Amino acid sequence: MLRPWPLTIVLDRRSSTPVGQQIVHAVIEEVRRGRLKPGSPLPGSRELADSLGVNRKTIVIAFAELQAQGW
Predict the structure, then answer these.
(1) Closest CA to 8 of 43, 54, 57
(2) How does DSSP assign the chain, residue by residue?
(3) What percent of the chain has pLDDT over 70?
């Protein structure tokens, strides 16, 4: 593991916010809190999809959104 701490994302599947957006918001919050520094490695899309129980495409789209927003 390249990260000094685990990336923990808790999803609320009953929320009206789509799962992909919840992932985007969780990563942004980790950056804002200072736990995730610019350039820090994120888990691979397959690893994160498996750990969250979501489709890999959901993670790929979330990562693309983070990149588009400049995070």
Answers:
(1) 43
(2) --SSS-------TTSSS-HHHHHHHHHHHHHHHTSS-TTPPPPPHHHHHHHHTS-HHHHHHHHHHHHHTT-
(3) 92
Q: Please state the pTM of the whole predicted model.
A: 0.87
**Average pLDDT value over all residues in the chain:** 90
* pLDDT tens digit sequence for 35-61: 888 788 888 999 999 999 999 999 999
What contacts 18, CB < 8 A, 6 or more positions away? none
Measured distance CA(16)–CA(30) in Å, rounded: 22
CA distance to 18, 53, 55, 57, per residue, from 39 (Å):
26, 25, 25, 22
User: Which region holds residue 34: left if phi is over 0, alpha if psi is between -120 and 50, else beta?
Assistant: left
